[in-house]
Amino acid sequence: MNISSLVVGAFDENCWLLHDPVRAEVILIDPGEEATRICTEIARLGARLVAVWLTHAHLDHIGGISGVRRVWPGVPVHLHPADLEMYALGSRAAANYGIPFEQPEPPEHALTEGQLLEFAGEPFTVWHLPGHAPGHVAFIGVEHCFSGDLLFAGSIGRSDLPGCDPDALAASLRRLTALPAHLRVHPGHGPATTIGTEVTGNPFLTGAARPLPRRA
Predict the structure, then answer these.
(1) Which distant-in-sequence residues (6+ apart) come within 8 Å of 182 by Cβ?
(2) Confidence check: pLDDT of 129 > 90
(3) Using CA of residue 63, residue 49, residue 151, residue 192, what is the dihedral sign?
(4) Confidence (pLDDT) at 215
(5) Could you state, in order of their start, the residue ranges of all structural domains in the chain?
(6) How many other β-carbons are positioned within 10 Å of the β-carbon of residue 90?
(7) Which whole number is the average pLDDT over 136-151?
(8) How far apart are CA 206 and CA 193, in angstroms?
(9) Rg of the chain over CA atoms, in angstroms?
(10) d(Cα 150, Cα 128) in Å, to the nearest integer?
(11) Are the C-beta atoms of 57 and 65 separated by less than 8 Å?
(12) Exposed e or buried b for every residue in 1-18, given b needs 16+ CB within 10 A?
């Protein structure tokens, strides 16, 4: 399996592409905007899109869904149900920022804590990690973690947006950072990192920085 990303939209969000070159299939994680770029990249890979996995439903993570599904009709979208209300309010949130947004159709599949997803022969476990958003999840594999907006390189997710819960965020971070140090973290914004790097050097985890950061 190959992993790559496209930085998309006004919030520089990471749309992650999981590519199985043997089956010529792709899974998208958080197609936040710029659906044409995303579909062009899938075409360049000579692959077909088989699913969309969402870490959460903030507008910068779901804005490309409608455009992607015009090219790939019926592609299933997976989201934790605790974020369905936020998902449905995407257009309203985008209007507050003054950015274009096409409201996607409701997701077809509900993600649940402990659910096992498989792609290219590799298992990914769904962890429900609320705090930044009520239905925030991470996808945990053997070597890779797609952390959404919970953990970044040198920072952590915001806790001051509607639906945020600082106490839940702290508990989710403790759970995530107990993972093996070698695990590679692919966040919703910014560069990739590892669990070990963040546990030892992230100032928001070591206590060197306060308060919680304001980040998308």
Answers:
(1) 143, 194, 195, 196
(2) yes
(3) negative
(4) 45
(5) 2-206
(6) 22
(7) 97
(8) 16
(9) 16
(10) 11
(11) no
(12) bebebbebbbbebbbbbb
Length of the chain: 216
Tell me how far apart the alpha carbons of residues 68 and 61 are, in angstroms, rounded to a whole number: 13
Place of tokens 């920022």: 97
Q: Which long-range contacts (CB under 8 A, 24 or more apart) does 121-124 make?
A: 121/1, 122/1
What would the mean pLDDT of 34-59 be, rounded to a whole number?
97
Q: Which fold has domain 2-206?
A: Metallo-beta-lactamase; Chain A (3.60.15)
pLDDT at 124 over 90: yes
* This prediction's pTM: 0.94
* H/E stretch holding 131: none
Torsion, Cα of 79, 85, 88, 92 (10° steps): -130
Helices (H), 9-163: 35-44, 59-62, 65-71, 84-88, 90-97
Count CA atoms closer than 13 A to 62's CA, side-chain side.
Answer: 26
